[in-house]
Amino acid sequence: MALILNGDAELWAIVLLSLKVSIFAVLISALIGMPVGAALAVARFPGRRVLIVLMNALMGFPPVVVGLLVYLMLSRSGPLGVLELLYTPTAMIIAQVVLVTPIIAALTRQVVEMLAEEYSEQLRSLGVSRLASVPVLLWDARLALVTALLAGFGRAIAEVGAVIIVGGNINHVTRVMTTTIALETSKGNLALALALGAILIGIAVAVNAMVSTLSLQAEREGLRHA
Amino acid sequence: MIRNVIRAAWIAVGLTAAPVSAEEPFIVVQSTTSTQNSGLLDYILPGFEAETGIDVRVVAVGTGQAIRNAINGDGDVLLVHSKLAEDQFVADGWGVERFDVMYNDFVLVGPKSDPAKVRGGMDIVAALTAVSEVEAPFASRGDDSGTHKAEMRLWDWADADPTDASGTWYRETGSGMGATLNVASGMGAYVLTDRATWQSFGNRGDLEILVEGDPRLFNQYGIILVNPDKHPQVRVSAGQRFIDWLIGPDGQAAIASYKLEGQQLFFPNAK
Amino acid sequence: MRDLTLDMSSCLSVDGVRITRKGKSLLNVPHLALDGPGPTLILGPNGSGKSLLLRCLHGLIVSDRGQVRQDGVALNADHKARQAMVFQQPVLLRRSVAANLDFVLKRQGMPRSARKSRIEELLAEGGLDGKVRQSARSLSGGEAQRLAILRALALDPETLFLDEPTSALDPNATQMIERMILRASTRGVRIVMVTHDIGQARRLAADIVMMQGGHVVEHGAAKQVLDAPKSDAARRYLAGGLVT
């Protein structure tokens, strides 16, 4: 416990790696998930409902299964084995992207669909096509989308099942907060594990507070510069 | 503002999200939780890394999973403790050659109340028979690990098949040694564990060692280079260097010098 | 400034338009020609098909049968690009007042420098000069509707459709908007506006389309329709309207 409070360098490296992996994963997921979610919100095609149901279901995809699938892809005997990505932070980012993208896509779809309903006639009156309306809607839904990002980040940073399989919990390489907690629990160091858990919660709170402050500020500044 | 945030995120993330220092040579060792949880590897590896500049990345799982991962080629060296399975691994061509590295022993721990009255005994088979007769709670790894395989062999010698009682007094956790010890500690169950993990375990609660010293509790560790004929990406020279070091005088001395609370946990016995 | 003579010759017409939903006829207009300079006000009770007709004219709804024509040609994308519409509930983008105008100007390919001065000009026209950077969603009802009208005018439309733009506003706000509409009409924008307010029709209309039950029951000069309605339906609506 004193170790934690004194800001042990090794611990901070673990915290930093957790943040790096999860922030990177959320950014990539947003780049994929937001356009996909928005497209699903405005497009009309057969099978759309099925896709939405599928996407919503993927939000609850068990991390261990995701970890296993990513492992099988990245393993040397798997199709992407030549890339030598297994047991690297990149592998953990990939697994988290698979976990987080459906969350961001599904929440984006929901938010954008509600907004699209409100804007529908106005945008059509202005001659904005469905496709062209996607960036408009995404931008106007930006505040709600920040929440989607945070939900994704929450899942990513708190997840252990997938990253321990594809990362291997290798000291100084792929050991993150959650896998450290798992390791310390298995060593019976329950107090240390709990303390690490408290730090994890603290980080989650801090990130949420920071992003919501920044997005409020961004909103105000955005209006000033428009 | 938003642009600034994104820039900050990229700075925070971008620099090191790529595999850490790709130019530094490294090997991946598939090993067991006992070598890691006991602190042995953290203790001996810096010596090897300083000497050779080779970073040793340890993936600590059960012996069964470690062997399966090695069969998939996801490791360069295998360091586990189940001689039969290791020999099979080499015989099937997945490994080059097996070397003895070190040994320690298993111990039977259980609650202080000791409902099966096995305390102080030296005969592990008799102790297990007693546990099964009074149907005292027993926590098993149940995960095909080296410890689990050893435990099943002991039950076999006791002419008992506790899996018939699975879910009643016999509890299979399907987890690592530490997690299983946590379960046993929580429910006051008997459990077979390697001494190293037990020694370094922090949540013993009401548990203590009840049976130890039976020659049948001997626990041998072996090391194998994954066969490059099966997986050409195996880092042969670095992996072989690690094996040579570990079974050589420096590695053996390092193993012998690792002590926890004044007690030596692993005994080098490379030939 | 638009050429007034050209506008006067342009004709928006409806031929054999029918809209039926679930076996119920919602709109049935065999023929209607809007060829005067306007403003044209479409008047009638709730559910008479006023808004539906307006949406057909703007191409937001395609009728089951019949056609909307601009100068004898079926309504096409080019025609629609020269139309604009303001809705009962203004739909403003979640951006600043200026950004709402900038959005449509940019879509028209206006260069940045020109946009800036055009925005200032428009905001002055709508009395929103002081609100450039304010969030559009924080405007009052009247201000929001004025911004919606400015945004429609920013498109420089030939025809401006308005669907009960003042129905939720107080008399003061209503008056400001009516003035904006009249100024636009004077500048040559053809106004087609739905209202249920007879007083408003009297104040603004050059000609009036009276609707009832999905039918056009009367179309004529404002004075004639209001003071000497020919149809029973119009007479009844005007009588009822005067009472309330």
From TrEMBL, chain A:
Residue stretches spanning the membrane: 12-43, 50-74, 86-107, 143-170, 190-211
Membrane topology value: Multi-pass membrane protein
Example GO BP: transmembrane transport
Keywords: Membrane, Transmembrane, Transmembrane helix, Transport
Major subcellular site: membrane
Keyword flag Phosphoprotein: no
ABC transmembrane type-1 domain location: 15-211
PROSITE patterns in alphabetical order: ABC_TM1 (PS50928)
Taxonomic superkingdom: Bacteria
CDD domains (UniProt xref): TM_PBP2
Compartments reported by the entry: Cell membrane
GO CC terms of this entry: plasma membrane
Family: Belongs to the binding-protein-dependent transport system permease family.
Protein name: Sulfate transport system permease protein CysW
Organism: Ruegeria denitrificans
Automatic annotation (TrEMBL), chain B:
Annotated Gene3D superfamilies: Periplasmic binding protein-like II (3.40.190.10)
Alphabetical keyword list: Signal
InterPro entries with a match to the protein in the record: ABC-Tungstate_binding, PBP_domain
Record carries keyword Signal: yes
SUPFAM superfamilies from the UniProt entry: Periplasmic binding protein-like II
Residue span(s) of domain PBP: 21-248
Coiled coil (UniProt feature): none
Signal sequence, start to end: 1-22
Record-given protein name: PBP superfamily domain protein
Species of provenance: Ruegeria denitrificans
Automatic annotation (TrEMBL), chain C:
SMART domains to which the protein is assigned, alphabetical: AAA (SM00382)
SUPFAM superfamilies assigned: P-loop containing nucleoside triphosphate hydrolases (SSF52540)
EC identifiers of the protein: 3.6.3.-
MF term (GO), any: ATP binding
Matching Pfam families: ABC_tran
Entry keyword set: ATP-binding, Hydrolase, Nucleotide-binding, Transport
The keyword Signal is annotated on this UniProt entry: no
ABC transporter domain location: 12-238
Protein name: Putative amino-acid import ATP-binding protein YxeO
Protein source organism: Ruegeria denitrificans
Gene: yxeO
